[in-house]
Write a structure and sequence with these properties.
The complex is a heterodimer of chains A (about 350) and B (about 325). Chain A folds into two domains: about 325 residues, Rossmann fold; about 30 residues. The termini of chain A are far apart. Chain A is an alpha/beta fold and about 350 residues long. In chain A, helix 2 packs antiparallel against helix 13, helix 3 runs parallel beside helix 11 and helix 8 runs parallel beside helix 9. Chain A has 16 helices and seven strands. In chain A, about 45% of the residues lie in helices and about 10% in strands. Chain A has a five-stranded parallel sheet, sandwiched between helices. Chain A is globular. Chain B is of the alpha/beta class and about 325 residues long. Chain B folds into two domains: about 180 residues, 3-Layer(aba) Sandwich (Rossmann fold), CATH 3.40.50.970; about 120 residues, Rossmann fold. A seven-stranded mixed sheet of chain B has the order 3-2-4-5-7-6-12, sandwiched between helices. In chain B, helix 1 runs parallel beside helix 7 and helix 9 packs across helix 10. The longest helix of chain B has 15 residues. Classes of the chains: A alpha/beta (about 350), B alpha/beta (about 325). Chain A: It is an enzyme of class 1 (oxidoreductase). Chain A: InterPro entries: Alpha-ketoacid_DH_E1_comp, DH_E1, THDP-binding. Chain A: Keywords: Oxidoreductase, Pyruvate, Thiamine pyrophosphate. Chain A: Its cofactor is thiamine diphosphate.
């Protein structure tokens, strides 16, 4: 018999299977992922980092309106998608573009929102990825609804719902956890705690012992992991997904990571934090430590490296080529998708706009 | 069996029952809608008949209820959710405005949300604070929502069936003071669709435009006016969004005079929108400015004072008298 505490409380320390020096650590509850998983993860990390760098560069060149980078959080991004099966759902936030691409969504369609030619560019049903949510935590009840519907239909779908540390203060986070627990819905709530909600540090956000502890009040088991250790994340998230699929209800996972860059290109992080705080996190880089480990094991052949590099080169070329041309937008789209059938009023307003444009052209 | 005398509450209940019978993907949930059958008994017996997977109680959290409905609609269900009272729907406002209303548009039509948010609304039942709001203008102001409200027993059934079958989210506003009003109805009779207003009474002298709980008051006023020699047309909007300009304007053009009757406060409201539309479209047919009978711009009063806030036959008749008749 496990006690309530054993069932619900997260580990005393964030689960870490490969430390920041690339040294493997034993853990009583979690095992290192397979070599194949780690090599796949390595390639995705390299590609994810390149995606972040290229997207940020494209903002500077005026090709994207804004880009909230997940630089330094790529292990979380990649792991969240890697642990899912086909048919599972991902509910991302605006900072989770790398996770969306890892799920198989087209990189250009992923960036439609941030480029500004439409609100959401990809078909959510194609890869089972919900539109990126900007109002914080509001996507979490949707994730519960998808999971609950799947359960009622007898499908073994698991839903991965992403949220940040700031988002855990929102009412929707709490309502979603509570609903999921009561409905026994197969949702993994994955909190990427990157220490900042724009400028507000975690200490001003929450007095909880950890964000994973927030599950206790709802009867949702919590766990936490080193957010820069892909191995630990794959193990912890993988187990959470398995439990949810096996009918054990929702799981809450907190990853301890750090937002190395500013909130977006429009933000000035020097106004609220010192460089001294950022520097140690650069040594905890998720790619660096996995590389060290894989090299030490002798698994990082030149073929593996070249393959990863080739994927990274490909995605950055894809972004440049796809985003450099001015996007084609159609003003008629403003009315086309509001209702299944347009109302008399939207038809009239669409006609007004059409006439206005025709006059301008004349 | 086809003709029976039932209340609006019973008609709504029957609409839910028939919709759930007709389509397995229809699910009903909210606060106290299970064993209790809802505080107004609109979901009475549904859990017993269809089981806990089809009609179920939820935790007491309106944003969660609507948010979960969004996800269920994304995944092939047709959720119908109940907000227990008008003012208790406000915690869900962000979900309604930012997601329910926008999902189809932001995904270029790829994700539709066929769902219904049922909201008992309005005063006239002696409800204490926060139990009598007319919140329709908040929803009508939000592009992407469809907002309907029945005024008759037949429409309660017909409109709710159509709302559940509708491809887009519908905010279904139920005038709670009419819940117990009984009518002889034939539920199998096809009612006009969403987006269509209906002329409830024909009269040549002026038009009363009303919706929801104000419709029976307008009809009563028309009855009194007729006895006094003035014939009034009464238009029941039924559907606030989409708005039926054609039916409304045709009635106003026929009569040349109009009064809008609504239970909600008047400032920046559905009633002000109607006046603006009628004035823009029918200006040359109007013999007098369009008048309004609405609530005062104050919070809904406590039960002992609510009669001063609700539109009355006398206020409607006074407004009609003020329409610059040539003989006065």
């Amino acid at each position: 018999m496990t006690t309530v505490e054993e069932r619900l409380l997260p580990s005393a320390e964030p689960v870490c299977l490969i430390d920041q020096n690339g040294v493997p650590r034993d853990h009583s509850s979690y095992r290192l992922p397979t070599k194949a998983a780690l090599l796949d993860g390595y390639a995705q990390l390299v590609r994810g980092r390149r995606f972040n760098d290229q997207a940020s560069a494209l903002v500077r060149q005026g090709r994207l309106a804004v880009y909230p980078s997940s630089f330094g959080q790529e292990a979380c991004q990649v792991a969240a998608s890697m642990v899912l099966r086909e048919g599972d759902w991902l509910f991302p936030t605006y900072r989770d573009s790398v996770s969306i691409v890892s799920r198989g969504v087209d990189p250009i369609e992923t960036l439609t929102l941030l480029r500004g030619d439409w609100h959401s560019g990809y078909d959510p049903y194609e890869h089972k990825v919900a539109p990126q949510s900007t109002p914080l935590a509001t996507q979490l009840p949707h994730a519960v609804g998808v999971a609950h519907a799947a359960r009622l239909k007898g499908e073994d779908t698991v839903v991965m719902a992403l949220v940040g540390d700031g988002g855990t203060s929102e009412g929707d986070f709490h309502e979603a956890l509570n609903f999921a627990a009561v409905f026994h819905a197969p949702v993994v709530f994955f909190v990427q705690n990157n220490e900042y909600a724009i400028s507000v540090p975690l200490a001003k956000q929450s007095a909880a012992p950890s964000l994973a502890h927030k599950g206790i009040g709802y009867g949702v088991p919590g766990e936490r992991a080193d957010g820069n250790d892909l191995a630990g994340l794959l193990a912890v998230l993988g187990q959470a997904v398995e439990k949810a699929r096996a009918g054990e209800g929702p799981q809450l996972i907190e990853a301890h990571t750090y937002r190395v860059q500013a909130h977006t290109n429009a933000d000035d992080a020097t106004r609220y934090r010192e460089d001294d705080e950022v520097t140690p996190w650069l040594d905890r880089d998720p790619i660096q430590r996995l590389t060290t480990y894989l090299e030490h094991e002798g698994w990082l052949s030149s073929e593996v490296k070249e393959n990863a590099e080739a994927q990274a080169v490909q995605v950055s070329a894809q972004l440049r080529e796809g985003l450099m041309p001015e996007p084609e937008v159609d003003p008629a789209d403003l009315f086309a998708y509001l209702y299944a059938e347009q109302t008399q009023q939207t038809r009239e307003q669409a006609a007004f706009l059409r006439d206005e444009l025709a006059r301008e052209e004349a | 069996m086809t003709h029976m005398k039932i209340s609006m509450a019973q008609a709504l209940n029957q609409a839910l029952r028939d919709a759930m019978q007709a389509d397995d993907s229809v699910v009903m949930f909210g606060e106290d809608v299970g064993a209790l059958g809802g505080v107004f008994r609109i979901t009475d017996g549904l859990t017993a008949e269809f089981g806990e997977n089809r009609c179920f109680d939820t935790p007491l959290a309106e944003a969660g209820i609507v948010g979960v409905a969004v996800g269920m609609a994304m995944n092939g269900m047709r959720p119908v959710v109940e907000m227990q009272f008008d003012a208790f729907g406000y915690p869900a406002f962000e979900q309604v405005v930012s997601h329910v209303a926008k999902m189809r548009n932001r995904t270029r039509g790829r994700v539709a949300l066929p769902m219904v948010i049922r909201i008992p609304y309005g005063g006239g039942i002696g409800g204490v604070e926060h139990h009598s709001d007319s919140s329709e203008s908040y929803y009508a102001h939000t592009p992407g929502l469809t907002v309907v409200t029945p005024a008759t027993v037949a429409d309660a059934y017909g409109l709710l069936r159509k709302a559940i079958e509708f491809p887009d989210p519908v905010v279904f506003m139920e005038p709670k003071k009419l819940y117990w009003a009984k009518e002889e109805v034939d539920l199998t009779e096809e009612q006009p669709g969403i987006g269509t207003a209906v002329v409830r009474r024909e009269g040549a002298d002026a038009t009363l435009i009303a919706y929801g709980p104000a419709v029976p008051v307008a009809l009563e006023a028309a009855e009194v006016a007729a006895a006094e020699g003035r014939q009034l047309t009464v238009v029941d909007l039924r559907s606030v969004v989409p708005f039926d300009d054609e039916t409304v304007c045709a009635a106003v053009r026929r009569t040349g005079r109009a009064v809008v009757v609504a239970e909600a406060t008047g400032f920046a409201s559905v009633s002000s929108e109607i006046v603006a539309r009628v004035t823009e479209k029918c200006f040359h047919s109007l013999a007098a400015p369009v008048r309004r009978v609405t609530a005062f711009d104050i919070p809904f009063p406590p039960p002992k004072l609510e009669k001063y806030q609700l539109p009355s036959v006398d206020r409607i008749l006074d407004a009609v008298d003020d329409l610059q008749w040539e003989d006065s």
